[in-house]
Amino acid sequence: MARILGIGTATVDIINTVANYPAEDTEIRAIKQRVCRGGNATNTLVVLSQLGHHCTWGGVGVNGPDGQLVLAELAHYAIDTSPCRIWGQGKMPTSYILLNQQNGSRTIVHYRDLPEFSFNDFQRINLSTFNWLHFEARQVAETAQMIEQAKQQYPQLPISLEVEKARPQIEQLFTQVDVLLFSKTFAQYYSHANQAELFLRSIHSQIPRACLICAWGIAGAYALTPTGDLLQSQAFPPTQVVDTLGAGDVFNAGIIDGLCRQQPLAIILTQACQLAGNQCGREGLQLIS
Ligand code: ADP
Ligand code: FRU
Predict the structure, then answer these.
(1) 156-202, pLDDT tens digit by residue?
(2) Mean predicted confidence (pLDDT) in 119-131
(3) Which of 51, 154, 171, 224 is most deeply buried (CB count within 10 A of its CB)?
(4) Cβ(221) to ligand 1 under 6 A?
(5) Is 218 in the pocket of ligand 1 (CB under 6 A)?
(6) Predicted local confidence at residue 194, as pLDDT
(7) CB-based contact 40:48 (threshold 8 Å)
């Protein structure tokens, strides 16, 4: 099993399940409310930990009940949080989420007012103990420094990068990583097309040595190998779609898990879609064995 370091966010997710998605300027009651930890990097680590990997999180939190909720859940999944930076003041990044009971869609309003995990914080981590690094492509300048340092010190250490949202200069993060995990939203924004293959081939022409992955919601997912072979997997919808929150994070965990196990990419892609599809059939990120 791999020792995996994930750098990125943890959030407090306040999830209101609603019978239907509301119209603007109306008032409705939630059927149910759940408050739990979320955040892309920590979601991915929570799944990886359940798949048997030793996971460590580098990110930011705050003193107080919200910060404790996050750390307690990560401790429950045996995730080492020792590198994280805990602020005395501020608010834990918080997502206010409407989960539509009709179709499992999730609509997220995110509020953040806390400094990001910095290059300084990252430099305190002893990278020699890890055999996989995973980053969220967030604050570009600092993340670029982290990736650069990791590659300089440990050129053999594989790095994956999750690219979910468009951010200025984000492409500068692509050149040094081994695996790029793109969202459909980013692909559509970047290539102005609704076609995963077109998008992946345009990235491949710039970054030919990386393994490129792109999740495509209910249409499954695509991968482009460094040799230019396009792979595709269907999605695996559950009998009833209950909760699509974090499907992309679960999918990413499936990809990293398969790569750590050195499985063939076509199999990895299918397994990751199966893992994410199963997830959509239940609430939360607790895997069922
Ligand atoms: P995100 O959560 O980042 O929006 P996607 O919607 O692209 O990510 O979903 C990631 C993966 O989760 C997809 O590749 C697919 O395999 C799976 N998935 C997402 N939505 C569904 C769904 N409704 N039914 C089955 N699988 C799904
Ligand atoms: C799901 C998620 C939520 C979080 C939000 C942050 O992918 O990580 O858990 O609130 O996205 O953008």
Answers:
(1) 999 999 999 999 999 999 999 999 999 999 999 988 777 999 999 99
(2) 97
(3) 224
(4) yes
(5) yes
(6) 77
(7) no
Distance between CA 42 and CA 10 in Å, rounded? 6
Distance 245 CA to ligand 2 centre (A): 7
**CB-based contact 232:241 (threshold 8 Å):** no
User: Which alpha helices (H) appear in the chain, and where do they start and end?
Assistant: 40-50, 65-76, 119-123, 140-153, 184-191, 196-206, 247-260, 265-280
Q: How many Cα atoms are found within 13 Å in the side-chain-facing hemisphere of 219?
A: 11
Fold of the domain built from segment(s) 3-8+40-61+117-280: UDP-N-acetylmuramoyl-L-alanine:D-glutamate ligase (3.40.1190)
40 lines ligand 2 (CB under 6 A): yes
Rounded to 5°, the CA angle 55-258-131 comes to 40
C-alpha to C-alpha distances, 38 to 109, 111, 138, 245, 261, nearest whole angstrom: 13, 13, 16, 9, 26
Q: What is residue 287's predicted lDDT score, i.e. its pLDDT?
A: 87
Q: How many CB atoms lie within 10 A of CB 208?
A: 12
Atom of ligand 2 at shortest distance to CA of 106?
1
Nearest to 215 by CA among 240, 236, 229, 242: 236
Going by C-alpha positions, the residue among 179, 266, 183, 180 that lies closest to residue 230 is 266
Residue carrying structure tokens 């994930």:
6
